[in-house]
Design brief:
Elements: E1 2-4, H1 5-22, E2 25-29, H2 36-44, E3 49-52, H3 55-63, E4 69-71, H4 78-90, E5 95-98, H5 101-114, E6 118-123, H6 137-147, E7 152-159, H7 162-165, H8 170-193, E8 200-203, H9 209-215, E9 220-221, H10 231-234, E10 252-260, E11 266-269, E12 282-283, E13 290-293, E14 299-302, E15 315-319, H11 323-327, E16 332-337, E17 340-346
Helix pairs in contact: 1-9, 3-4, 4-5
The protein binds pyridoxal-5'-phosphate.
């Protein structure tokens, strides 16, 4: 994997400047990159922490010295609850989300046994059925339960509108985001009226970063993909340009090589399923070339008459269409300024049951 440092740095600066101007905090998601190096660079530009999908990512980031880590997937196994509480003991700025009273009880019991206080955020349903308690009454009851749990400290509410993030068209996306977050906002107002401490309202994505700031619905953003961008995000259209979402640049490629060309109209590259190659990936500099998969170790670039003819041994860079899955199969990012590799950043916390 190759990072174009210039585009990457511009992406980070664009988001940091936007958040500063909008009065929003950034607690960017690391699930897309799994790199403490990137988290550190974001912290240097003013972000208040990171959001993580797994306890393992949280442990990794905290160990790398990142403060303000928030686990955005409720811990529900004995293993994950134990590790969540242990991490809170080592790093008091760490916190987790919950969406179920039973998990609040499990966490309280585990935290009490260790004499630890755990920062806790109530995760409110915002359009994705995979997580989040029903807004309004149930969310407030859960927030009260957290607030009255001796070893849990309620810090706020979360609502992640994952369905809005990739909605095509800026106006359509805005409507979807506002509809999905309406219940969260109602819950925030109810919680505050009930005297509950709501110091953060967290959510948002790369697709909605400039919608969330206009709606003033969140206090902080969890956007992650903008650091590298991917081809699926490019297609959703931006506020200015309805065809291409160009607020952030494509900064990450997978470097492949042409290894066979025995048939007209196609060349074979050394990247297939194991490289997380997908038909939605794109060839850098040749968006007209179709990228296809032909097994574990093989990919095919399909060429039409007049398309560029690739040479045997030629390097071909592909833009991934799904960052989370693609970065998860590589060990390191080769960081390039222009044509020069200037750094290597490890991609951490990927293998083994402990990572789940
Ligand atoms: C809970 C949560 N927050 C934030 C994000 C970041 O969204 P994006 O990478 O689209 O900016 C994700 C991504 O899946 C997520 O699951």
């Amino acid at each position: 994997m190759v990072v174009d440092l210039e585009i990457f740095e511009k992406n980070l600066n664009t988001m940091a400047a936007h958040c500063r101007k909008a009065g929003l905090q950034l607690r960017g998601h690391v699930k897309v990159h799994k790199s403490p190096e990137i988290a550190r660079r974001q912290a240097a530009l003013g972000s208040i922490g990171v959001t993580c999908a797994t306890v393992a990512e949280c442990e990794l980031m905290a160990k790398a010295g990142i403060r303000g880590v928030l686990l955005t997937r409720q811990p529900a196994t004995k293993n994950n609850i134990g590790r969540t509480v242990a991490l809170a003991g080592r790093e008091p700025t760490f916190g987790t989300v919950v969406d179920d009273p039973l998990v609040v009880e499990w966490l309280q019991e585990a935290a009490a046994a260790e004499g630890v206080t755990l920062r806790t955020v109530v995760d409110v349903y915002a359009g994705l059925t995979r997580h989040g308690i029903e807004p309004g009454g149930p969310a407030i009851e859960l927030a009260k339960k957290v607030d009255s749990s001796k070893n849990l400290k309620l810090i706020g509410l979360m609502g992640y509108s994952g369905g809005a993030s990739h909605t095509k068209g800026w106006n359509e996306r805005k409507k979807k985001s506002q509809d999905d977050l309406a219940g969260l906002l109602e819950s925030v107002a109810m919680a505050r009226a009930a005297g509950l401490p709501v110091s953060i309202v967290t959510g948002g994505s790369t697709g909605t970063y400039n919608i969330d700031s206009e709606s003033k619905s969140l206090t902080e953003l969890q956007a992650g993909s903008f650091v590298f961008m991917d081809t699926l995000y490019r297609q959703i259209g931006g506020k200015q340009d309805p065809t291409v979402y160009s607020d952030f640049g494509l900064a990450l490629t997978v470097m492949t090589t042409v290894i066979s060309k025995r048939h007209t109209g196609q060349v074979t590259i050394d990247a297939g399923n194991k490289a997380l190659l997908r038909s939605t990936d794109e060839v850098k500099g040749c968006p007209e070339v179709r990228v296809e998969n032909q097994g574990a170790e093989y990919g095919i670039l399909t060429l039409k008459d007049g398309d560029k003819d690739f040479k045997l041994g030629e390097r071909v860079e592909l833009y991934p269409s799904n960052l989370d899955m693609s970065t998860n199969v590589y060990d390191r990012y080769y960081v390039a300024r222009g044509e020069q590799i200037v750094d290597v950043w490890p991609i951490m916390g990927r293998s083994g049951a402990a990572q789940r």
